[in-house]
Amino acid sequence: xxxxxxxxxxxxxxxxxxxxxxxxxxxxxxxxxxxxxxxxxxxxxxxxxxxxxxxxxxxxxxxxxxxxxxxxxxxxxxxxxxxxxxxxxxxxxxxxxxxxxxxxxxxxxxxxxxxxxxxxxxxxxxxxxxxxxxxxxxxxxxxxxxxxxxxxxxxxxxxxxxxxxxxxxxxxxxxxxxxxxxxxxxxxxxxxxxxxxxxxxxxxxxxxxxxxxxxxxxxxxxxxxxxxxxxxxxxxxxxxxxxxxxxxxxxxxxxxxxxxxxxxxxxxxxxxxxxxxxxxxxxxxxxxxxxxxxxxxxxxxxxxxxxxxxxxxxxxxxxxxxxxxxxxxxxxxxxxxxxxxxxxxxxxxxxxxxxxxxxxxxxxxxxxxxxxxxxxxxxxxxxxxxxxxxxxxxxxxxxxxxxxxxxxxxxxxxxxxxxxxxx
Length: 423
Fold this sequence. Notes:
The protein has 14 helices and 17 strands. With 423 residues, it is an alpha+beta fold. Strand 14 and strand 15 form a beta hairpin. The relative contact order is 0.20.
């Protein structure tokens, strides 16, 4: 069961992220100090026109100082420190990462800012379609795996059987050498707060689609406000969908067989993040989930889903957490796992009857949509992109681009002219 302290926080904390704009951006503001803590997206990759887009809203950008953390490698299944684990030497890790980046750049036009130029089934480079484990072995990249897993690839859960193109989608050329920026305020939500103010009443939060009609002539949606229980009929010439179109998310739309043939094939993970407090968590430290089997140098031994990836000290007594599970994962399972993981790390001679306090939380929901090697070779990407514009409906989001906010903005620069053509 979810501990009472977790339940109370989940039900009442002002830091919980629900029904707001911002995608995977999540920011908590400490009431006493006024300090901002970004526990979703950490920074914006300086890609394309991203910085100009943010500055258009009179937001000053720059590079914020990062908290330097000492690493402790802990097997979260046992709660014990993996004392004999030896991280990859910096030179080896850097060399492997440079090689990976060089390879990723060869295929960047196929993946960024979208898959518009992805090769036909018979022309897909083997590097992109082969399982990532084979790609790592082919180019001897083992030393870089812990680093990219820690940064973004953990979102795939187990990246090893996944086609390499999806790993490059999660950690590809745009992230290397592009630099990054944040609002100087420290509040990554500042952009979305200003966008919401600009759009005003056109933004419908706390709402769902009750019914829909889509055809080549236009779209009709019945939008239901869950607070007021009122319904609004929206008529439009084109519809743009920005969430992850897994089959369970598409139930509200009048989907046809062609659409469901794509939506039903996707695999994905559920990624969640939050801020917690507990007196046993060490200040100035990142507790990294490292299986005992990874010691001393087995760098392909990664946590098994579902897992808590790490606990990172953020400042004051706040710790950022990241959790990854499969399709069946949900916020209640993650909260229980988070609490039990901390308690396993407590020393037996210092038993504390203390639950983890949940300060802020976000369920990112389905992420890292992908298919297997055989589906790629059958032309899945072409089938996926054939949905763009079908029945007056267009799609944006990470399933159609890359797992980076600013790359997605650049994708929209290509998408929107297509959507608007002929209007």
